[in-house]
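Practice problem 4.
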């Protein structure tokens, strides 16, 4: 049985994917896993040149900080490593690779609010 935080996280990832697709992005992969970790969403920007690794953070409130405040330097570095592994495994050759983050906040009363950070680790 899933814990409430797992359910919240999955709902947040679904909403984040919808958020990106509404902006013309194409979802390449979701919940890609390897022995070193997981990438929530891999997406291609509308230009087709940029591959974006998207970390999704969901929260039901801000008592412990806003969703994006929980992404540490260590997490961003791990995402960069996972991006390299994903590219190597898939054989993709994007012109640009970027790591972004989407925060999904579920305040009481329904609905959700998004926050977005572009290029938390770009190369």
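Answer key:
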């Amino acid at each position: 049985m899933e814990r409430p935080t797992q359910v919240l996280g999955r709902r947040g990832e679904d909403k984040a994917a919808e958020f990106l697709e509404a902006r013309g992005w194409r979802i390449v992969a979701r919940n890609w896993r390897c022995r070193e970790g997981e990438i929530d969403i891999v997406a291609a920007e509308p230009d087709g040149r940029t591959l974006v690794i998207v970390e999704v953070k969901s929260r039901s409130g801000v008592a412990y900080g806003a969703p994006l405040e929980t992404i540490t330097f260590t997490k961003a570095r791990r995402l960069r490593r996972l991006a390299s592994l994903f590219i190597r495994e898939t054989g993709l050759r994007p012109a640009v690779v970027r790591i972004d983050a989407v925060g999904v906040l579920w305040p009481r009363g329904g609905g959700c609010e998004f926050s977005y950070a572009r290029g938390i680790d770009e190369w």
